[in-house]
Amino acid sequence: MAFALPTGSLGQPISTGAGITPSPQLGAQSESGEHGDTAPAKPAADRNVDFEADEVDYSDDDNLVTAKGNVFLRRGDRTMRADSVVWNRDTGDIVANGNIRAVDADGNEMFTGSMKVDQDMTVGFTTNMLLLLREGGRLAADKGEKQADGTVLLTRVSYTGCDVVNSKGCATTPSWRINARRVIYDQKHKLVKFKAARLVVFGVPLVPLPTAIIATDGRAITGPLIPDLRSTASNGFELSEAEYIRLADDKDVTVKGYVFSKVDPMLQVNYRQLTDLGAFQLTGYVTRSPVVSATGTTIGNGQDQLRGYIDANGKFQLSPEWSVTFSGRLASDRTFLQRYYINNDDLLRSTINVEHIDKNSYFSLSGWAFQTLRTDELQGSVPIALPVLDYRRRIADPWLGGQFEIEANTLAITRTAGQDTQRAFTSAQYSLRRTTPWGQQFTFTGLARADAYHSSDNSLTATSIYQGLPGWQTRGVVLGAVDMTWPLVGAAFGGTQVITPHVQVVAAPSTPNLSIPNEDSRAIELEDDNLFALNRFPGYDRIEDGTRITYGLEWKLDVPRWSINANIGQSYRMTSKPTLLPDGTGLSGRMSDIVGRTEIRYRDLFKITHRYRLDKDTMGFRRNEIDAAVGSNKTYFEVGYVKLNRHFDPTIEDLQDSTELRAAARVAFARYLSIFGSGILDIDDKTVVNGQTLDKYQPLRTRLGFSYNSDCLEIDLTWRKDYVTIGDVAKGSSFELHFSLKNIGFR
What we know:
Helix content: under 10%
Radius of gyration: 36 Å
Number of strands: 46
């Protein structure tokens, strides 16, 4: 049976019998044009309380309606289920009893045995209640009673964000809870305010919480965050505490203070805002402390200096095609970020980029600036690239089915104490693919490009092959290539294998590369990734000319649970003319070195990747890189080994040799507990950090920690050791305690 209960008194009594007839709506207009007792403040559908029940009784004496058996009430987005409900038509109050489950407009659920609600279905009185918040929290109270201001006073309250039953449905003790004598439940503003509360972790009462507020609709609210503790060799004992301030639904700010035992305090501010077009955020740090250069020299006679760091980024989508992206980073000095454990970056990039992207074209107008934090690099030699313009368009070939791509690019590079370079080029590339009846796939490519360069102060570039000639230089580039692959598919080892021979021929006339400044094509080395590239130089400033043939083989095997992917290849130059490629790149001779990659995977439990470059004469490793991972997300072991033995000319930058071992592991036990660790080990004695040559087998950094991570609580205790002193970043051990409560207004 179903009928509607208006929020005020009825004009007509409800009828009884086999069917229950809905009563007239309060305030509905009569035929004579007169209204009911109360003027309508809301649409009638919103003011009515609709409900269903197995049985309904009506009492004329006390004007009560009693519903029994599977009672269901709804008013707008609020619902309630109970064994029985008594509705007082005079007062509008509803008293429910037995197995009550009430759901508010935000999806929060309340369970209790007895509850009184008003005509808006907001709580007036309840006992032994349990409130399940949609965001995951649970609040239990002995009693709740509505106050004069409309709030509900809850007594003897306990709140937790943890599950109170395990996976088998058995009761379990939550990792943490907040106990309070009194709690104000503000249903109108959707807030739960704790009074005289205390945080209990693993059954042990800890810090008191004079003011703790939770939003029942899951939104962030203003309030303090949980502090962090740390101890470092540079700053001593550290305590940090943050205050979150919600300025509006679309903006907030977090202010965080740091107190140290060895140095002055530090302030951090983070501002975030969401707009109709996008979002942005700004983070800043500021403090005062003595500054020591990377070489150990004290700056400013040891007096405190103003130090800090700014990081801003954002993106705005102006239309489906147009967007603006920006990022800016600036530090006061080269050791600030490491000194205060913000990050270990050695180069800060700032950029702004205006982009237009559609189905067949791409446009970008951007600018880049860099701040070096490297101890052996002068800031004046670091480039500023402004403007950088790039435009590309694809045009379908209506005759043969190929595709044209045209590109225009220009940039200007400026240095305050180095070489300045300006570049512009236009290019056109045509590609055509064909498949033979036997399955061979041919790709024909033609490229034509015209370049113009202007440079000055070329002698300030230390590496001569990068300088180019000063003044105006021009270059024309023509390139043609034929690429053939032949995938051969068949059954093998109970699975499927694909063997793909790959042959490529590329031809380009001699190009005056050395007269052109080299800004973006410096880090050249033969790898499996660029073996079949049309131009194996990165960037645009160098072109690999001459005629070469490249050949290789790829093998893929997929069997139940296992997969293998391997490739190997080499190239041969058809000309004996000297090449500008330096020794050690694997490309300096007519016959190149051999490069390849092998990847073996077993489901998601094991993966090993081996990348290598073999000397064409001795078959010795010039590059030997192994990365392996075994385990699951909870328990795993990862190891990485890289040995670069390329014998580059030491006067060439960016391409030095090294040997390094990296390892990381995490072992989970007892459901929520785990230990973790990681380390970086220098195996040879060639690595140089801050002008110091590291000893053989010297660690660079190690880390070891213990973690408790459940559905509602995270505790991490981490030990870290740095083995090299850089300026005022002292080597030594540091300890950090991180504590986080989940499903609560705290971090």
